[in-house]
Design a protein that fits this description.
The complex is a heterodimer. By secondary structure, chain A is mainly beta. In chain A, 0% of the residues lie in helices and 53% in strands. Chain A has no helices and eleven strands. In chain A, strands 2, 4, 5, 6, 9, 10 and 11 form a seven-stranded mixed beta sheet that branches. Chain A has a four-stranded antiparallel beta sheet with strand order 1-3-8-7, with no helix packed on it. Chain B is an all-beta fold. Helix content of chain B is 0%, strand content 44%. In chain B, strands 1, 3, 4, 7, 8 and 9 form a six-stranded mixed beta sheet that branches. Chain B starts with 8 loop residues before the first strand and ends with a strand. Classes of the chains: A mainly beta, B mainly beta. The A-B interface holds A 35, 37, 44-47, 50, 57, 59, 61-62, 95, 100-111 and B 1, 31, 33, 35, 37, 42-45, 48-49, 52, 54, 84, 86, 88-90, 94-102.
Chain lengths: 118, 108
Amino acid sequence: EVHLVESGGGLVKPGGSLRLSCTASGFTFSTSSMSWVRQAPGKGLEWVSSITSTSSYIYYADSVKGRFTISRDNAKSSLYLQMNSLRAEDTAVYYCARVKWELALDSWGQGTLVTVSS
Amino acid sequence: SYELTQAPSVSVSPGQTARITCSGEALPKQYVYWYQQKSGQAPMLLIYKDTERPSGIPERFSGSSSGTTVTLTISGVQAEDEAVYHCQSSDSSGSYGVFGGGTKLTVL
């Protein structure tokens, strides 16, 4: 069974940084593309970033480009999101998800809450 | 930036058919994916590549596509289907993801 567990969320001041982690199990992580998706309180889903299995291709939403960095460690079956220069509008639950069938996000973690506030 | 448009809400009675649409100018060239999100839960994939169902998804959930609009159809709606339904696709390059605003399905 596919299992994704996010961690690293919390309260941070505007301009601060956080690093989210996603630990995967139950599938071959090293051959799977992965994504981060966020959901602000009471709002819809927003795609944040994606990374291919070997990190050859990385994509970011315009809203986070230049501030967030996605990365992975296949040896540790882990996905990361380094978030810098955080803003109030980055407040959201952040989900990691496995990519399958081109762009389908077929498995999701339970999410980790990031709150940016002074 | 590229956007997908969904109606904010749809209401149906149990046993009826619910149709939830998603519109976007790149949809004739890019696949659409549908997710169900119940209150307090992570989203769950319902439909991929416009019309395909992952294993375990009931047959009452189906997808169709016509031009710039795709439709998620839920036949014989049940109370447990009350949720927010999100469509997802990509821009014309196929590299950048995008979600619609979500449609809240209320079962009367």
